[in-house]
Design goal:
The structure is a homodimer.
Chain A lengths: L20 H8 L2 H13 L3 E2 H7 L5 H13 L3 E6 L5 E6 L1 H19 L1 H17 L6
Antiparallel strand pairs in A: 1-3, 2-3
The structure holds a DNA duplex (20 and 20 nucleotides).
InterPro entries (chains A, B): HTH_HxlR, WH-like_DNA-bd_sf, WH_DNA-bd_sf
Protein name (chains A, B): Transcriptional regulator
GO molecular function, one term (chains A, B): DNA binding
DNA sequence: CTGGATCCGAGACGATACTG
DNA sequence: CAGTATCGTCTCGGATCCAG
């Protein structure tokens, strides 16, 4: 977008759009990636494709493939093919993946623990929006 | 953890699509929400709308509004209007927001620290894909 | 300054069919 | 079993204009 080469000393902490770490974050910042990492971490062992599919209720095989590819590309997930018949493919966490898995699992756990509070906040918010005739927005 | 009506004893750990925590995760699992939480946490003080916009390089005001609304609705971000002229609106973290902020900031920090490794993994992956004539996929 | 409203294109995503 | 391919839908997200 814009490149301020030291133009503004008042903006010491910007999250630049060209920072490469953003591309990393954008891989993690999607629910299926979070679920895949969380699942692989929970089971503490490699899982097969259809195993993962059953575990991650609601995911389509397309999204699972896509997500696994992205995670594999970033070196977070390893893919091992056993040339048997029928074919057997296992997905496991790399050492990088284990690290991220701890972080993402923490988020998943937190979400689970605080679901009630957040659901309550939502209801309150929605009621406020509904009852306020002319909200000061 | 969650309750499945005992249909399948071989699937003890599924991530059910109807689990309410998923809706929570889906709010967090988008890059702008992660950035907003990270920014509010870093600055350790409420930020105004356009402050946030400048900090989060590349975000449009639409997405910023949308993201802030979602976070506010979930009780992670508080919105305070000072009826001055021109209007002044500040966004801060709630206690819930501070908690999530720690988790998401950890991810952001990790991404920043491991950007090199991941970029390298990507290059390796892409080259493998390019050189392998008939990949065993 | 802080948004809301609208239009629109690109990409996400789901469903289905097919293959080694 | 573990995918790939194709198609249609639909939401996300950017750009622009407008308002209190």
């Amino acid at each position: 977008m814009d490149t301020y080469s030291g133009t503004d000393a008042t903006a010491p902490l910007t999250y630049r759009s060209d920072c490469p770490s953003r591309t990393v974050i954008e891989v993690i910042a999607n629910k299926w990636a979070l679920y895949v990492l969380a699942a692989l971490r929970r089971y503490e062992r490699p899982l097969r494709f259809n195993e993962l599919r059953r575990v991650l209720d609601g995911i389509t095989q397309k999204m699972l493939t896509q997500t696994l590819r992205a995670l594999e590309r970033d070196g977070l997930v390893s893919r091992t093919v056993y040339p048997t018949v029928p074919p057997r493919v296992e997905y496991g966490l790399t050492s990088l993946g284990v690290q991220v898995g701890q972080l993402t699992a923490a988020i998943a756990d937190w979400s689970l623990e605080h679901t009630r509070e957040i659901l309550a906040a939502r209801i309150a918010f929605d009621e406020r929006a509904a009852t306020e005739p002319a909200p000061v927005r």
